[in-house]
Design brief:
Strands 3-2-1-4-5-6-7 form a 7-stranded parallel β-sheet, sandwiched between helices. The longest helix is centred in the middle third of the chain and has 26 residues. By secondary structure, the protein is α/β, with parallel strands linked by helices. Helix 1 packs across helix 7. The protein has a single domain, classed as Rossmann fold (3-Layer(aba) Sandwich), CATH 3.40.50.720. The protein has 9 helices and 7 strands, in the order E-H-E-H-E-H-E-H-E-H-E-H-H-E-H-H. The structure holds NADP nicotinamide-adenine-dinucleotide phosphate. The site of NADP nicotinamide-adenine-dinucleotide phosphate (NAP) has 30 residues, from helix 1, helix 4 and helix 6.
Length: 262
Amino acid sequence: MQFDDQVWLVSGASTGIGLEIARALAACGARVALAARSADALQREAAALAARGLQALAVPMDIRSDEAVAAGIARVLDTWGRLDGIANVAGNGGTLSRWCDAPSHGTESMFAVHVLGAERVLRAALPALVRQRRSVVVNFASTVAWVPMPGAAAYSAAKAAVVALSDAWRAELAPLGVDVRVFAPPHTRTEAGLAWPLPLPKVFEPQWVAQAFVQSLRRGAARSVPGGNGALLALQRLSPGLARRIMQRIGFEALRRVEAAA
Ligand SMILES: NC(=O)c1ccc[n+]([C@@H]2O[C@H](COP(=O)([O-])OP(=O)(O)OC[C@H]3O[C@@H](n4cnc5c(N)ncnc54)[C@H](OP(=O)(O)O)[C@@H]3O)[C@@H](O)[C@H]2O)c1
């Protein structure tokens, strides 16, 4: 896959994994629109990329707003006239907590960003993506979409919904030339990632995840689960009870750590 002259929109590009993905795509020659709510951070990064001779545009938007998303997509099209790809990265897992202790609107807010936000961006961008005849949309999931984790019930459910929608969109939109994919990062050293004290042997760097993302784009993988978590998904197919027990052990230990630190 060649990125030269392609136009990509990366949501969640003000920090963390989305920021590193925006940098990686720009370094590959793509023109990159950086989207998130933090306008100053986006402007700073777009200026830093431009200073390196790369093409970047800050597109502040809250993906929970129809108007903001429509205006952001229109800005990208006014600037560059096309849209070849979207990385729907925006969102984070919040704080781990038992479902009965979580705020009553917790599930609703998780779905508002991860599920409805990604859907809103796709809906607004779809005419441009179809016009391009060959375009890619990558929605960000997590291993817990397939093996839900105690302490993150709403997040697990939201990511499961992202996977289900993506699989259905993939089938429906393929004839229109829009290739919908899913990418599930491993446990990553970002502010959101470190808020979950998971008992795992390794925390991946966001730069590593961004490179894995670019490689998955080049491979054309419909579903990419880098960093070893594919093994858990394989185990889930062979022995769902064992995979569930492993994830429960991870979730309850992380919850114990959060509660001990409180
Ligand atoms: N880190 C991990 O270990 C891990 C593991 C598996 C999956 N993931 C997934 O990977 C993605 C990125 O995670 P991360 O760790 O990089 O998170 P992060 O560091 O918290 O970054 C989240 C990004 O999303 C943006 N965002 C949040 N709400 C938004 C909204 N309403 N509208 C627009 N932008 C919004 C934030 O920017 P503003 O605050 O400026 O809006 C920020 O740029 C998420 O989908 C997460 O669920 C992460």
